[in-house]
């Protein structure tokens, strides 16, 4: 009987070891960025900083693509705790950029994602001081300048929605440890029932 019990435990251990278990530690998720996703900046961009919810490892890096698809590498990349900082030799010219980042999370997973922002370091279409009549036309063509708070609040709402969608997608793609625990319990119960039925038949 002892041999049967030992064999039972060995089979159960084999079943448990075959179950694909994920680390209880969550994947690293981007929590904050400078510049922020979807932001339009009216000042030169020389640095990019990304903050994550967990510590990231050395070797994590990033680069940007301009609107022509040209790759721009940073001159230096530093990793401190959960923060990745990249510096560029020259400030980024006006245009839309995609930030391509790749990090090695604390759980050992390699994660690659991207986001975009716009740099607008030149003020095109500004009123001509020599022709005051143009100022009225400029105001009519750009009604947002009358109430800049609206554009700011709309941008904040957009950023919040994108952040919530990102967190939701991360949670959906990472099943909870409780689910895996339930699977293990069900498999163990099924194995015990199977062996109990086999032993019962042998006794009969």
From TrEMBL:
Spans annotated as Disordered: 119-173
Transmembrane regions: 178-199
Gene3D superfamilies: 2.60.40.1220
Domain spans labelled CopC: 27-118
Location in the cell: Cell envelope
Highest taxon in the source lineage: Bacteria
Signal peptide: 1-26
Keyword line: Copper, Membrane, Metal-binding, Signal, Transmembrane, Transmembrane helix
Bias (Polar residues) ranges: 119-156, 164-173
PANTHER family: INNER MEMBRANE PROTEIN YEBZ
Name this polypeptide is given: Copper resistance protein CopC
Species, as recorded: Halobacillus shinanisalinarum
């Amino acid at each position: 009987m002892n041999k049967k019990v030992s064999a039972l435990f060995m089979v159960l251990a084999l079943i448990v070891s075959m179950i694909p278990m994920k680390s209880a530690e969550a994947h690293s998720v981007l929590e904050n960025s400078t510049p922020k996703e979807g932001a339009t900046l009216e000042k030169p961009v020389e640095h990019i900083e990304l903050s994550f919810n967990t510590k990231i490892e050395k070797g994590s890096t990033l680069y940007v693509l301009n609107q022509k698809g040209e790759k721009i590498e940073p001159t230096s990349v530093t990793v401190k705790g959960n923060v990745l900082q990249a510096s560029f030799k020259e400030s980024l010219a006006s245009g839309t950029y995609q930030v391509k980042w790749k990090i090695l999370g604390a759980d050992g997973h390699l994660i690659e994602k991207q986001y975009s922002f716009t740099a607008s370091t030149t003020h095109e279409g500004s009123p001509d001081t020599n022709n005051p009549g143009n100022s009225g036309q400029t105001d009519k063509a750009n009604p947002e300048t009358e109430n800049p708070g609206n554009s700011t609040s709309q941008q904040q709402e957009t950023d919040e929605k994108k952040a919530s969608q990102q967190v939701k997608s991360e949670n959906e793609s990472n099943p909870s440890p409780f689910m895996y625990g339930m699977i293990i319990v069900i498999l163990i119960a099924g194995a015990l029932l199977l062996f109990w039925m086999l032993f019962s038949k042998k006794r009969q």
